[in-house]
Structures are given as C-alpha cells and as structure tokens.
Amino acid sequence: MAQHVLITGGAGFIGSALADRLAAEGNHVLVLDTLARAGAADNLAWLRRRHPRHIAVAHGDIRDGAVVADCVAGTAGVFHLAAQAAVSVGRSAPLEDFEINLRGTVLLLDALRRRGDAVPLVFAGTTKVYGDLADIPLDLCDDGWQPADTALRAAGVDERRRLDFHTPHGCSKGAADQYVLDAARSFGLPSVVLRMSTIYGMRQCGTPDQGWLTHFLLAAMTGGGITLYGDGHQVRDLMFVDDAVDTCLAAWRRAGDLAGRAFNLGGGPDNAVSLLQLVGTIERLLGRPVARRMAPARADDRRWFVTDARAARAALDLPAPLPWRQGLARLAAWADGAQGRAVRAA
Fold first, then answer.
1. 87 lies in which domain range?
2. Which residues pair with 273 in a beta bridge?
3. How far apart are CA 209 and CA 198, in angstroms?
4. Do the domain assignments include residue 43?
C-alpha cells in the first residue's frame, strides 16, 4: 500500500481544503473524521468526486486509540485538525472538550512515538492560547478598538506573548499545543504548531461561535440578519483558507528544520477589521442593507486581537496573504453558486 498523508478532521472546512490540495498534487490522503459536524459529509463527497483515486476515509474518532494507531501506520505525515472548536461547547461540555482536544492529541502523539520514526506533524492550534489580552490598554479609533501602544497596533501579537489559557476550550487546546511542542523535545518528532486566527473561505459552515465571518455573510445573503455581540467594535484579523493551506503545507515540508516551534497564522494588521466594518462591507458587496441585532457581550470575547504572523512567513518563505476584501468577494461568489446555496439552505 502506498504511503498516505493523514488528516484528522479532514472532512472539515480547513481539512477538506488541505486534502483537496494534497490530492491534486498526487498524494494519497487518508481522512480521519467522525462526520458529525454540519457540512462534513458534503465536504467528503466533494473530495471523492474530485479525487476518487487519492482519497481514502477512516470513519472514526480521534478519541479511539486503536483507530488512531491504524491511521498512523504507514503515514508519511500528519495534519492534526480534529478538534472541538467552540468556546461555548467547552463551557457546556468540558469533559467532551478535554477528551477531543487534549486526550485525542496525546493518543495521536503516542501512536507516532510508538512507530519509532520521525513522522512530520502539523498541529492546528489557536491564538486563544494568549488569553483575553486584558492587560493591553485599548482606544476606540474610528469603528474599532486598537491598542494604545502604536507599535503593537502596527504589528499585532507575536509568539513571544505569554501563554494564558482561558475557558475550558482554551485550556484543552493550549495544553495540546504544549504537548505537541514537547513531542519534539521528548520523542524527536518533527512537530510544528500553527496558532490559527480567523480563517474563512469556501465550504465553511459558519456559526456565531466558529467560522463567524462566513456565518455573517450567509446570514446576510439569506436576509436573516446578523447578531452583533457587544458593541460591534471588536477587531479581528482575517486569513483566506488558501493562504492557511499554503502555510500548513510549507510547515509539513520543513517540519524537520522547524521541529518544536509554534507560529502564529493569521492575516495580520493589513487584514484586520472590526465587526461593524465587515458588516458595512458585506452591505456594499450585496448592494443592500443588512439587518443588525445587538446583543450583550459574550464572556471572554476579546475586544481586539490581531496576529503578528511575520515569523511564519519568514520561516516558510510565504508571500503576504490575500487582502480580506478580495477574499470576501471570492467567498460571496462561491456562496452565490450552487454549493453555497446548498450550505445556506442547510
């Protein structure tokens, strides 16, 4: 049997985009997924139609050690994207959050350790490991919150920021982040962590908790309106999914040189936007107003977070990411097509 590349959570939004790129390059891809999330089965069907000879599926759970060990056998590399991704679920079901995000990661690392060879691993982490950033003074500038420190405003948060896990979800993902980094030290695994900010793009089934940009756009296109929690001046940086895939692939190919390092992955200050600015851009894109509903701020919702991702671009020799307005226009064009209409109807 030919060696495969394993993608845990490979039927998810980023996972399916990554599987598509790998298969298009001629790699055999093994997708490990429960198919429990909305859109996962459709993403898998899409992959199989496009790459019938290069996509294999293990319908299973990252919490099942035997399944994980089987998937790891014979793999040429692992992209670990399987996760419980919603902060709200971490609060309502912390044990499930722990089992998926932390225990599942440790099971995967142990299976790789038992293989006894150096299999590259790229872990999809989160910038939530940096906490609520409550120590950063902010000013309200135009429509968005910005750091009073102009240097921080211009650059964003880099990897030197101290780790500060908040919420059960932040703790489970943060602990998994550290386990992956330690696997390079303790077991010699060429493992790399990518701490992801807001990633958006085609085939994303967005919700208010996760994939919120796509959720905003699809809600606006259906006429359902958008709910803004807090004052709407919260600022986030945005990265188009194709740029995220480029980074994942570059990290995999250079994992031997970068083992044990964590990199921020996001659009950076040039792709930072407030929620109100984003809604205004969606309105101009659609050519009509979008109903807005204001709701109380959610716990642990940072008023500002912008990623400094220059270290990843330098280490992986990557260009600047796609400007967010161009990415939003691409997403809107997809959503207006047959696939997007099916997602909106779901």
1. 83-345
2. 236
3. 11
4. no
Does the residue 63 lie in any domain?
no
Nearest C-alpha neighbor of 121 from the set 188, 209, 189: 189
User: Within its chain, how far is the Cα of 295 from the centroid?
Assistant: 25
In a domain? residue 45: no
282: closest CA among 201, 202, 218?
218
The answer to whether 32 and 9 are in contact (CB under 8 A) is: yes
The answer for 78, left when phi > 0, alpha when psi is -120 to 50, beta otherwise, is beta
- Distance between CA atoms of residues 61 and 68, nearest Å: 8
What domain count does the chain have?
1
Q: Going by C-beta distance under 8 Å and a sequence separation of 6 or more, which residues neighbour residue 246?
A: 318
**Which CATH number goes with the domain that contains 151?**
3.40.50.720
**What crossing angle do the helices spanning 338-345 and 324-335 adopt, rounded to 10°?**
80
- Residue whose tokens read 């779901």: 346
- How confident is the prediction along the chain (346 residues), in pLDDT tens digits per residue? 458 999 999 999 999 999 999 999 999 999 999 999 989 999 999 999 999 999 999 999 999 999 999 999 999 999 999 999 888 899 999 999 999 999 999 999 999 999 989 999 999 999 999 999 999 999 999 889 999 999 999 999 999 999 999 999 999 999 999 999 999 999 999 999 999 999 999 999 888 778 899 999 999 999 888 999 999 999 999 999 999 999 999 999 999 999 999 999 999 999 999 999 999 999 999 999 999 999 999 888 899 999 999 999 999 999 999 999 999 999 999 998 845 555 545 4
In-domain check, residue 34: no
Backbone phi and psi for residue 66, each to the nearest 5 degrees, phi listed first:
-65, -40
The three-class DSSP label of residue 192 is strand
Q: How far is CA 174 from the centre of its chain?
A: 14
* 240: three-class secondary structure by DSSP: strand
